[in-house]
Design goal:
Number of helices: 1
Helix content: over 70%
Oligomer: single chain
Radius of gyration: 27 Å
Strand content: under 5%
Structural class: mainly alpha
Shape: rod-shaped
C-alpha cells in the first residue's frame, strides 16, 4: 500500500481547537435547555401520577 509523502510537514489541529471552542460556548445553552426539559418532564410525570391516583381510587370503589 502506498503512503502519501507529506514532505515532513505536520498538519495543525485547527479543527480540533474550533470544535473545543464551539463546545465550550454551547455548554451553558445546553445546560439551560436540559434544566428546562427536566422541569417539563417532572411536571408531566406529576400530572400522570395524579391521574393514576384518581383512576386507582375509582377502580377500587367499583
Amino acid at each position: 500500500m502506498a503512503t502519501k509523502d507529506t514532505g515532513g510537514q505536520k498538519q495543525t489541529g485547527r479543527r480540533e481547537n474550533e470544535v473545543e471552542e464551539t463546545e465550550a460556548s454551547a455548554a451553558p445553552d445546553v445546560q439551560e435547555r436540559q434544566e428546562k426539559l427536566t422541569d417539563d418532564v417532572d411536571a408531566i410525570l406529576d400530572e400522570i401520577d395524579e391521574v393514576l391516583e384518581e383512576n386507582a381510587e375509582e377502580f377500587v370503589r367499583s
